[in-house]
Specification:
3-stranded antiparallel β-sheet; 4-stranded antiparallel β-sheet; 186 residues; alpha+beta
Length: 186
């Protein structure tokens, strides 16, 4: 197992770099409009657009969000619960060297400290990351699996990444030479 981070391949992308949403607003306004629509499906989620990220001293949409966990673990957890999902979701498998010049932090996203999308992030949930100390996760948190189970019982759509730590990276990330993987394959 190497040290990688993962990002879902955007449905529409221009250029060869991942850009944070707030950078898209200037560079590609139509993409910004498209990718911010998901924040307007709930009044609390709208507040994410103005959420401050402690220790990086920026906004939620000034950073790129990466999984520190191979997406197969998420696919496996969802499908093992009998939840139907698209098997052909693509992710960039990005070597951590691609973010070494950015400011990076781990958002722990623990169930115990999470207060909802409309609330500020508790500072204890953010840890700055030195790339030479980064270790890729090898299992999905139990709180995430329980979340999937409960949301399935409710019978409504739900987020894919709750309570999974996120690596937040302040800067752009080149993806022109990275591997693209399917989350349904280990």
């Amino acid at each position: 197992m190497g040290n990688f981070i993962y990002h879902m391949v955007p449905q529409e992308m221009l250029g060869d770099k991942l850009l944070p949403l707030n950078s898209l607003k200037q560079a590609y306004p139509h993409l910004y409009d498209r990718y911010t629509k998901k924040y307007f499906n709930d009044p609390q989620r709208t507040k994410l657009l103005e959420r401050h990220v402690p220790k990086l001293n920026c906004l939620w949409n000034d950073v790129l969000h990466f999984l520190p966990l191979h997406p197969y673990y998420i696919y496996k957890a969802i499908t093992s619960l009998g939840i139907e999902t698209n098997a052909d979701v693509s992710f960039y498998k990005i070597p951590i060297q691609h973010i070494k010049n950015n400011n990076n932090a781990m958002y722990l996203y623990s169930k115990e400290n999470y207060r909802g999308p409309g609330e500020e992030i508790n500072e204890v949930e953010i840890r700055t990351v030195k790339m030479d100390e980064y270790k890729e996760m090898t299992e999905i948190p139990l709180a995430t699996i329980e979340y999937y189970r409960l949301e399935k019982e409710k019978g409504k759509e739900f987020g894919l990444f709750p309570f999974i730590p996120h690596l937040l990276s302040l800067g752009e990330v080149a993806v022109n030479s990275v591997e693209i993987i399917q989350w349904s394959k280990p």
